[in-house]
Amino acid sequence: MLTEPDLDLIAALQIAPRASVATLAEALDVSASTVGRRLIRLEEQRILRVIGQVEWTARARGNPRHVWVTTEPGASGSAAKALARFPEVQLAAETAGRSDVYLAVHVPDRAEARELLAERIPGVPGVAGTHSELVLRAPTRADSWRLHRLSEDQQRILSCEQIVPDGFDADAVGPDERRLIGLLAANGRITAAEAGRSLGLSQSTAYRLIQSTLRRGLVRPRVEVEPAQLGYELEAVIALTITPGAIQAVAGELARHPSARYVSIVAGTASVIHQGVFRNEDEMADFLTRDLAPLPGITALQVSVVLRMLRRYWLYREDGRFAPDHT
């Protein structure tokens, strides 16, 4: 179990993933050495990583897709493991409800989508059927989800080290930036010295490149911890059918909901997909029966409850931690 100080550190990193140890220590009112030891321990225990969330257009041509997979009886585990190994699969989970396996996939090129969706995924042994939705827009993503534990004063200290993106042009990304994006995706706290050594650049040049990449929003550093480690033991993917005139309003309200890790407007049989985390069944019941009730235009919903997470943001998971072979 994570301790209260552990949770405070994670909450601080969610606000400022690249904050220095000194700044984290100031905000949490502990010594820098204590913060450093705690951070190392969480990483060594395969609980926490700070990664870089890469902007879609900097990673591929085209947006991600949600894919629901129905399997033959008894085949969901083996099919989910096989599907999780596909390089295009960002997230793979065994689920109950709408489907047996849920995937989030991001294909490098639109032309490759047909092969993946129509041939490769259906061709996996045990797969009986698939259904996909194209993501059109995402009002919120996982880098925005927060543990609300820190005071306004603590948040103010941390905000000094936040970098607010001011827009980007993926077509203007140079070769050094593309290589840096790969480094930041693996380690969102990489230093200028470390990046410089990997890229063959001076520390000052690497520093300017990191700052430019973050300001342009090509990469957004974020904390990766399985929600169950933070007390959110129930995770669900909820597909909502909404009348066209209400889609934007409903998506905006859902994006502001405390449970929202990823909300997307999609093209398919559904209108909006809400990927949410909840502390228990009662909290999820309140969301479905109370929080959704006043929202306009919702005509139907389908729920897939996550039973086991195998891969999230291209990182393999095992029993609520990062899999040891992929840390």
Q: Keyphrases for this structure?
A:
327 residues; alpha+beta; two-stranded antiparallel sheet; 12 helices; 35% helix
The coarse silhouette is globular
Helix content class: 25-40%
Major sheet details: 8 strands, antiparallel, barrel
C-alpha termini separation:
20 Å
SS class: alpha+beta
Beta content comes to 25-35%
**Spans of at least 5 consecutive residues with low confidence:** none
Encode the helix/strand succession as letters.
HHHEHEHEEHEHHHHEEHEEHEEE
User: Any idea what the radius of gyration is?
Assistant: 20 Å
Mean pLDDT: 94
User: What's the β-strand tally?
Assistant: 12
Count of DSSP H/I helices: 12
Protein architecture, described:
- The chain has 327 residues and is of the alpha+beta class.
- The strands form two sheets. Strands 2-4-3-10-7-9-8-5 form an eight-stranded antiparallel beta barrel. A two-stranded antiparallel ribbon has the order 1-6.
- It has twelve helices and twelve strands.
Write the layout of secondary structure elements.
Blueprint: H1 4-15, H2 21-28, H3 32-44, E1 49-54, H4 56-59, E2 65-71, H5 76-84, E3 89-97, E4 101-105, H6 113-120, E5 127-140, H7 152-159, H8 175-186, H9 192-199, H10 203-215, E6 219-224, E7 234-242, H11 247-255, E8 260-267, E9 272-278, H12 281-291, E10 298-312, E11 315-318, E12 321-322
Antiparallel strand pairs: 1-6, 2-4, 2-5, 3-4, 3-10, 5-8, 7-9, 7-10, 8-9, 10-11, 11-12
Helix pairs in contact: 2-3, 2-7, 9-10
